[in-house]
């Protein structure tokens, strides 16, 4: 694995960690949305476990182009989770933390 790929993997893992913190903060702020917000956590789990797990990263062997494709695809899979979290943050900002329906 190249240094560039390792750096990108670290960036993606940092993004996932930041998203997990943002989701936890949002769940604490708007407990009525906890079950909907849990979907975001599930999305993060799928990306982390399905794309960034060391077992997945280790096989098959990849060249530089394959690493780029894999990590770009991983980032693309992460985007809906980020968008959904931002959607819920916007809802809470507009309607307040005690929102139950939207």
Helix-and-strand structural type: mainly alpha
Task: Please state the CA-atom Rg, rounded to the nearest Å.
Answer: 16 Å
Specify the overall morphology: elongated
Total tally of structural domains: 1
| Number of contiguous helices | 4
Helix amount: over 70%
Notes on the structure:
The chain is an all-alpha fold and 102 residues long. It has one domain (3-95). Helices cover 80% and strands 0% of the residues. It has four helices and no strands. The chain has helices at 3-29, 34-51, 54-58, 64-95. Helix 1 runs antiparallel to helix 2, helix 1 (3-29) packs parallel to helix 4 and helix 2 (34-51) packs antiparallel against helix 4. The relative contact order is 0.18.
List keywords for this structure.
single chain, 102 residues, mainly alpha, elongated
Q: What's the quick description here?
A:
By secondary structure, this protein is mainly alpha-helical. Helix content is 80%, strand content 0%.
Give the SSE layout.
Layout: H1 3-29, H2 34-51, H3 54-58, H4 64-95
